[in-house]
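Input sequence (377 aa), recorded before submission:
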Amino acid sequence: MHVTRMESKQLKQAVELSDRIFLKQPEQPSMGTSFPFIFDPGVSHSYGAFDEEGKIASFMGLVPFTIRINAAELRVYSIGSVCTDPESRGKGLAGELLNQCFKHAERAGASLVFISGGRSLYTRAGCRLFGRASEHRMTPETADRLSGSLDNGWEVREMEAEDLFRVHELLGNRTAAYAASPNELDKLLGASAFANVIRLEQKVLTAAKDGEIKAVAVLGVPGTRMTPSRPATLIEWAGNGQAAAFLLSQALTLYGLQELIVPLAWQDRELSGLLEASGAAKENIRNTGTVYLVNGRELLRQIAPLFPEETAGMLQAEGEHGPYRYSSGGKTIMLDDEGLLSLLFDPQSPYREQEQENGRHALPVIPLPYTSGLQYI
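Predicted structure, token format:
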């Protein structure tokens, strides 16, 4: 087998293999339609394994992103659409592709690679669970209570083409957000990647007041083409928390839903609190998938703008994969890659127990987007 970075002319084979492996119903859109950032022609970052006749045997999609967190920018990759022809399984091809993707990310100066799965293929290679999130379950009863507790002066309607720039602005202003141009956002909204994977129909709702859109929510709801694999689900949201809460309360009536699952990153405290106060059941979860630390030194360099000046020197990397020296509260501990990811991205990290100062952490917890959103790969 020959392992190589994909060329544009080879992507058609990758789409055909991915469709054969992943599509569960004939009505599901092709993976080539759902994931344009992987399969559209252009400079591909993905890798494939080919036999002597040039037929693809295994594929791994690799897509570069920038995540903006206030003043910091993280260079990251996402891995998805990982598949191997059944006749070629058991030969270690996926492991070799994963290794090539990690090397590619390191050469590119990336700090993290997000993977949409958590199976042993990834955990054996050093991929870890990361961050925190909450998952809320709304019902018509909790939606009614939520709606009754909020200002009802919001106009809720489906997004129109002319709303693109305002929706782009709202999504870009989140505390932690994937960077995307209006054109890229337009493509993602049309692709409906995560909605297609869970076999739901994507809807985009806006909430406006005095003619200005204040909140947006991207939803997957049951449709008529596909049999859903899960209940109606919030895929992405942005904007004013109260406006977003009212928007979600109206979504159940608009689409005749008996249930709406609302996953939120840990930093979305206002919206989470409003849903919890309405009686919506809440479960604390991790962010989705796993993450691989490409280079610890590079990660610390990229997030440096988020650290207050008084924390200088508290966290130092002795190598690209540690150990990492963390000094706080008069104590110094050494961390490995998993410990660093926990300290930086997990508000419940055990390494933060000693550093409370006047009720605040000396090092800020770094927020990340909820990864099963519009940029899901």
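Checked by second reader. The chain is about 30% helix and 30% strand.
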